[in-house]
Structures are given as structure tokens and as C-alpha cells.
Amino acid sequence: TYGFNGNYNSLTNKPLLFSGSYDDLTDVPVIQGFSGDYNDLTNKPNIKDSIATYGFDGDYDKLTNKPVNVSSFTNDANYATRSEIATIPDGADVGDMLFWESGTKGWNRVPVGTEGQILSIKNGVPTWIDFDASANTYKIGDVYLEDGVAKGIIADISADGSEGLVVSPDEYAGLKWGPNTTLINTGTDGYANTNLIRAAADYNGGAAYLAAFTCVNLGADEWFLPSKEELLKVYANRSFINQRLEAYGKTKLGATASAYWTSSEKDAGNAYLLQFATESTHFAGTVYEVKKDSAIAVRAIRKLTSAEIKSRPDGYKFYKVGDVYYDGRTPVGVVYEISDGGLHGKMVAVEHDLKAWSIAATQIITNAVSNSNGQANLDSIMANVVFDKTFFPDPPDYMIFSACKGEGWYAPAKDEMLAIYNVRASIDVTLNQLKAQGEYIDLLDVSNQDTKIYWTSTEKDLNNAYGISFEDGSVVEKLKNTTGYIRGVRKF
Known about the structure:
4-stranded antiparallel β-sheet
């Protein structure tokens, strides 16, 4: 009676619904738009009249205050003129080069060099120089040798090869430059600076100037405390030097000490040092002064002459652990230990034998007791055992000598064999590569064999000698008349 029953059809005056079609709309607007044609526009500007009245039509001749001819400029800055630049020096020949010399404001001629020369810069001028780049010439990063003994790392060689620098492989920490009250008047030559320091009245045998004294103590006529200019050369080549120091087993530049003394003074109370590792207060490569009585590290250097730079010995080669050692073209060993940066070391043979240490009917004490020197052990066996030396190096009773495959080869002592075990993975990588090339080799890994022991030349007692298990690296005592692997080593 009073409400809506909810049925849409029961509604009255219901609205008419829109179909959604534009065509069903009434009173639609008439669109008054632009056709897009410029010509249909009204009140268009008159371009020609506008340019004439307000703008530039692009005609250069209509410009006012045009510049005068360039040739009439005043050359108050003394620029090179076209005629000067175009002038070629007299005497120029095929292969010559020209360089511009600002002082004379003209081209100068560099005559063509000869075969083998290199072009360098000397006093700011391109210059052809003779330089020997043969196998007997050292390069930066090489270990410098004197009478076969490593002395240091080549730190710098001049462009013409006339001089160089060697940096000591050792680092000396916590040294004072000197008293804060004495002015030495040092210059750019570290050798001269060091001699000036040594001549100081308060030198006191070096006790007052430990930085310089420590360098001099390496060899008074050779080693010295570098000037800042010289130490900057060392810094510039530090990556090559550090590669060799790392192989050498020595402390790298900037690894422990962040900065090093130079022999260059700021004044009576201060001297310069060079930062080799960035810290919160100084970036690497920064030269700055500190009090002379500060405790700073030192790296000594020495100079090289042209003859010394060209004195690298024949056969000069540096090895790393895992390298193949060749006799001619034949691989005879794999490097397992290095010294002097890889110049020297020890190799282990590429082959092994499976034999007893000794099968003598009556075992004796041979006094082969060295844990570190296999050659000394074999010498002791030779001295204490009576056998027909014509069988050497493979005597019928003492087969430990089978390791002696040639001159210099011997059976390793206990510690030498342990050193081989510790790098066995690197050695076997190399041995596998040789095997893949068709070489006849025996892998070190014998952990899957019935016998897992490598003999050492170190004797335990009358009936036993020591072996190394290549299953776990343990040292074992083994009867001399039982079998084990025998593998020779040799120094290089």
C-alpha cells in the first residue's frame, strides 16, 4: 500500500535509455576547426615586411660593423703565423721527422735514426738513442744479480738505458731520519745526500741517523737512502717490483709500511717521506714532510751503470711453483720450491720408481740422518756402504740411489718430500698437462695405489727409513726392504 515492490517494470515515468550511438544524439555541436592548411589562416604576418622591419634576412652584405680582414689583426699574443708554420727546415730528407720548438717558434728537424735505435725524449727534445734490448739486458722487475747472488729488484731504467736503480728486497721499519736541529742541505741525488748525512758532525757512527746508516750498512759504496725524486721512480714502478717481491717471498712495497723516508730535507727539523699506501690523512703517491725524529720505514736503493744494466747472465729465468723445468726440449722436472724470487729452487722428477730402500742381506747404519738435505744423506750412504760403484746410480742393494737419474739428482730428505706433498696439487696439474701432450710421466698422486708411500733418504735406524704417506701427509717408519715409491729431486 505504501511502498515500492522492487520491480523496475512497476515504475512510472521511467527514463529513456541512450543507445550509445553518436548518431542517436540530438542537438550535436557543429565543429568549427582549423583545416591545417596555412593558406586557410586569417591575419597571417607579412614575413618580408617583418624581416625588413625587425630582423636579419641572412644576407652577409647587409650586416653592419663586419670584422676587417684577418691579416690586418695585431698579433699581440705572438701566435705562430701561417707562413712560419709552413716553413720546413733546410736539409730535410726521407725519414726525417719534425718537431715544433716553442722557444724558436719553428720546426726543427730530427734526422732519421739507424736500425736498432729507439726514439726518446732528452732535455725536452726527441732524440734517437742506442739501446740494447737483448736477452742480457735487465728490465724493470727483474732480480739483479752479482756473481749469481740476488741483490735486489730493478726499480727503474732510464729511457736511453744509461742508468738505473735497484731497490732492496728487505724493508727496515721504525727508523729515525736524524736530529730535528741539523740542516744537511740535501739535494735531488740520494747517493750525494747520504754522503752528506754521513759527513754531519753529529753523525755519531750512524747512531743519530739510523735511516741513512741502515742503507749504508748494506754496502757503503753502493746502497743509500733515496731522494724523493728517486723514490718517486720506485713508486711509479711498484706494481712490477711487488710482483717480484711476492715471488721472492719478501714484503711488498706499501704492504706493511705505508710510507718510506727519503733523504730529502724540508728544513732543519723536517724531512720528506713518500706515501705508498693510502691512509686517512694522505693518498698514495703523496710526498710530504714530517719531523726528522719520527719512526718511519726505509727501503735502500743503489744505482746501476749502463754496463750493469746489460750484464744479465745467460740462462736468466725465473720460475714459480708448478712450472716445468726442461733439459733442452725434454721435460725433466716440475718446480716445487723457489728461492731468490724464482731464480733458484728445487724440482721434482716427472717419473718415479717402485722399489725398496735397500735389499742388502745385512742392513747397516748409514748415518743418513739429515731431515732437510737429501744430497747429504746420499753422500753419507756412499761413504758408509761398500758396494761396486760401477753400478751407480742404480746399485743392486741400495735402490734409493735410483733417484739419481743424472748429475745433481738425489733422493729427497724427509722435509723435502713433505714440501713436495704440500704442493702436490699444483705439481699434478702440470704433470697432467704433460701427460695430455703425450709425455711419459708419473703423477704424484698414488692415493689409489696399493702402496701410498714415497721413500725419503732419511734413515730411522738399522732396519727402517722414513717415508711420507701421500694419502694424508703423515711421516711413517718403514722397513728398508719393503717397497715404496722413489722420486728424485734436483736443485737449479
